[in-house]
Design a protein that fits this description.
16 helices; single chain; alpha/beta; about 350 residues; about 20% strand; two-stranded parallel sheet
Length: about 350
C-alpha cells in the first residue's frame, strides 16, 4: 500500500491525520533521529547492518535528543518524516497523543538494553563521592533552611558537605530536550530533594516544581547538544562536574574521572545488578505504518536485538551498553517481529 493510501485510511479514523503530497514512497533508506545517548549504539548497528545486509541501504542516524527525536517522529506519516526515534526514556503519554493527532497511530516500542547516568569531572579535578541530596543542594534554585525556603547560598561543594571537594560549584547538566535530564531529575534530584521535611510538606505539584527548579546564577549549565559539548565545558573549566551516560564516560576514561553515587562506582556490573542507583532502559520507536514501505525496518530491529549485536560479549557491550538477559531479549524480539503495538 502506498503512503498516500495509508494516510487516507488514517484520516478516516484519526482526529487529525496528515496527508501526503507525493503519490508514492520514493525513499528507500531508513531515517533515524533522537537520543544522544543512543546515538553511538545506533550508529554502530546501522553501519554493521548496512555491511551485513547488502540488499538494504545503511540507515541514516541523527541526534537531536530524545524529545527532539520523538517530536520529529510524531510529525506524521510519509517520506518526509523519520521512521525511527531513539530515546533514553520511555515515550510520554502526551507524545503518544501528539503522534496520534498527526496520524502516527501505530508505534512499536523496542527496549534494547540499559545505561547508567554518571557524574564525572576532569582527571585533575576533585574526587566526588555524591549522595542525591548533595546534587540537589548544589543545583537547586531554593533550598530548605531553618524551616523556610531560601535562595541557594552554596557556592562551593565543601559548603554542602566537608567530604566533598573544596571547589566552586559548576554543575553541567543535559538540557530539557534530553531523556538523560528526565532520568537525572527522577533518580537523583527528586530523591535528594525529598530528604527534607519542608519539601515533603508541599502538595504534589508544588513539590515537583520546587525540586525541578534550578539556580540561574551561572552555577548550573544546561547543555542542549550532546555529551561532547559537556566534555568541552569540562575541558574549559577545571571545577566543572558533568552529567554523562556511562557509555560516553567509558569511551573517555583518559579524560574523565567518575564519581560515586551512594557509595557505588558506576560500571556495567553495578548497573546490571541494580546496585548503582542511577540507571535507565534505552529504547527506539518504530513507525509501524512505515513497515513494509521503507525497506528493512523490521530486519534492522531484529538485527539490533540479536545476541551477537547487543548481548553479552557483543560489539554494543564493548561500546558501553548493559545488555538485557536472554529471556527479556527473546520476549522483546518476539513482540517486535509480531509488530505488537504500543497501547
Amino acid at each position: 500500500m502506498t503512503f498516500r493510501n495509508k494516510a487516507l485510511a488514517i484520516a478516516m479514523t484519526a482526529a487529525a491525520a496528515v496527508a501526503f503530497t507525493a503519490p508514492a514512497m520514493a525513499r528507500d533508506t531508513i531515517q533515524i533521529a533522537g537520543s544522544s545517548t543512543v546515538l553511538p549504539f545506533a550508529s554502530i548497528v546501522a553501519e554493521e547492518f548496512g555491511n551485513s545486509f547488502p540488499q538494504f541501504n545503511t540507515p541514516v542516524v541523527g541526534s537531536g535528543g530524545s524529545s527532539g527525536g520523538l517530536r520529529q517522529f510524531c510529525q506524521g506519516v510519509g517520506e518526509n518524516t523519520i521512521d525511527i526515534a531513539n530515546s533514553s526514556r520511555a515515550i510520554r503519554p502526551a507524545e503518544v497523543e501528539s503522534c496520534a493527532a498527526n496520524g502516527v497511530t501505530e508505534i512499536i516500542e523496542v527496549k534494547f538494553g540499559y545505561d547508567g547516568i554518571v557524574f564525572a569531572s576532569r582527571t585533575d579535578s576533585g574526587t566526588f563521592a555524591l549522595e542525591p541530596h548533595h546534587v540537589f543542594l548544589a543545583g537547586a534554585a531554593q533550598i530548605p533552611q531553618n524551616g523556610e525556603m531560601v535562595a541557594n547560598p552554596y557556592t562551593r561543594w565543601s559548603e554542602i558537605d566537608s567530604s566533598l571537594p573544596d571547589q566552586e560549584i559548576v554543575l553541567v547538566i543535559p538540557g530539557s530536550n534530553h531523556g538523560t535530564r528526565e532520568v537525572y531529575e527522577e533518580k537523583v534530584v527528586h530523591p535528594g530533594c525529598e530528604t527534607f521535611e519542608e519539601v515533603n510538606a508541599l502538595e504534589k505539584e508544588a513539590k515537583t516544581n520546587f525540586c525541578n527548579a534550578i539556580r540561574t546564577d551561572g552555577r548550573v549549565v544546561e547543555i542542549a547538544g550532546n555529551y561532547t559539548e559537556t566534555l568541552a565545558r569540562l575541558d574549559a573549566q577545571k571545577d566543572a562536574l558533568g552529567v554523562f551516560g556511562l557509555s560516553f564516560y567509558d569511551q573517555n576514561r583518559d579524560r574523565l574521572k567518575v564519581g560515586t553515587v551512594g557509595g557505588v562506582i558506576p560500571s556495567l556490573e553495578t548497573i546490571g545488578t541494580g546496585e548503582y542507583p542511577v540507571s535507565r532502559p534505552l529504547y527506539f520507536y518504530i513507525k509501524n505504518q512505515h513497515v513494509g514501505v521503507i525497506p528493512g525496518l523490521l530486519e534492522y530491529a531484529q538485527y539490533f536485538l540479536s545476541e551477537q549485536v547487543g548481548g553479552m560479549g557483543s560489539m554494543l557491550e564493548s561500546a558501553g551498553l548493559i545488555p538485557m538477559d536472554m529471556t527479556e531479549r527473546d520476549e522483546i524480539t518476539a513482540a517486535v517481529m509480531s509488530r505488537t503495538l504500543l497501547d
